[in-house]
Amino acid sequence: MNKLLKFAHFSVLALLLISCGSAPKAEASIQVQDESKVERKSYFLCTKEGETSLPETAPFPLDDFEDGNYWVGVGDSWDQWGSHNLSLAAGVSTEWASSGTHSLKAIMEAAGPETSKQATWCCYSLVENDFTGFNWVEVTVCNPQDFDFELNIAIQDGVNWQWMQSENLIAKPGITTCLFDISHMPDDFKNNVYCFMIQSVNENPGGFLFFDNFRLYE
Question: What percentage of the chain carries pLDDT values higher than 90?
Answer without folding.
Answer: 67
